[in-house]
Design goal:
about 15% strand, about 260 residues, transmembrane, alpha/beta, 8 helices, Rossmann fold
């Protein structure tokens, strides 16, 4: 029931593109307030405008406040200083969507660049942990809240050339499962969404800007859209308080 989202405040990392941007627009439509985080401020502005238009067109009775914060999730000092950049009225976050991340290269183990290893672990794992640490303290103090982490099928079904990326997503899975058990006696909910192939900038980044190589990945199958994943995230968030969607695998119909 989407009305359960009315007036909720949702913090989304990696909100400047792809799944994060689509999620921002969907939550705005559902009557939520938003805090949108990413490194590209100009892109965040565009997403905020689209989210605001979606909120208006849905004529939602609540929500509609949007704060954007230019932030690199790998920078602990920036994460610690987050609240100083968020208006007072938006500091009681109800839902954290830990989405920022990506794959940098599709290389065999001997060929992976050190900087790509560092970027993937710093973003996909350490960044997600930093944001969770910041929010979970609040959630525990308020005895409420929902952490939604974006893992990947890659964390469960590793593939050749994806070793480090797959390892980061396996780490997201282990971290999320542990957190779920940590808060099991509280109303705090913890969800992991594990998508298969989604057509976003992800594939272009993975192939270091080579769009034709990036597109080839989708040969013979229809990839998911960012909106497909946003719907799963919003669906998990809109369950009644006694229901926790622990894990969701969502794959293109012709990906196994
Ligand atoms: P995109 O590349 O389209 O979006 C990635 C987002 O993460 C961007 O908004 C980017 O913003 C942000 N981001 C990257 N690094 C940082 C950083 N250091 N600090 C803050 N924000 C950052 O990819 P997707 O939307 O596809 O990916 C979103 C999530 O979904 C990722 O965790 C990815 O691993 C996961 N996923 C994607 C799949 C796919 O096939 N697309 C499949 C399974 C999982 P900016 O550059 O402005 O900082």
């Amino acid at each position: 029931n989407a009305s359960r989202l009315l007036g909720k405040t949702v913090l989304i990392t990696g909100a400047s593109a792809g799944i994060g941007a689509a999620t921002a627009i969907l939550f705005a439509k559902a009557g939520c307030n938003l805090i949108l985080l990413a490194r590209r401020a100009d892109q965040l502005e565009k997403v905020a405008e689209a989210a605001s238009a979606a909120h208006k067109s849905a004529a939602a009775q609540q929500g509609g406040q949007i704060a954007i914060v230019q932030l690199d999730v790998t920078d602990r000092a920036q994460v610690s200083a987050l609240w100083s950049k968020v208006p007072q009225g938006l500091r009681n976050v109800d839902i954290l969507v830990n989405n920022a991340g990506g794959a940098h290269g599709i290389d065999r183990v001997g060929d992976i660049q050190d900087k790509d290893i560092d970027t993937m672990f710093a973003t996909n794992v350490l960044g997600l942990i930093s944001l969770t640490q910041l929010l979970i303290k609040d959630f525990k103090a308020r005895n409420a809240g929902h952490v939604i982490n974006i893992g990947s099928i890659a964390g469960r079904e590793p593939y050749v050339g994806g070793s480090v990326y797959c390892a980061t997503k396996a780490a997201v899975h282990a971290f999320t499962s542990s957190l779920l058990r940590e808060v099991v006696d509280t109303p705090i909910r913890v969800t992991e969404i594990q998508p298969g192939m989604v057509e976003t900038e992800f594939s272009i980044i993975r192939y270091r800007g080579d769009k034709s190589a990036a597109d080839k990945v989708y040969d013979g199958l229809q990839p998911l859209t960012a909106e497909d994943i946003a719907e799963e995230i919003a669906w998990a968030a809109a369950r009644p308080p006694h229901v926790n969607i622990a894990e969701v695998f969502v794959l293109p119909a012709n990906q196994a």
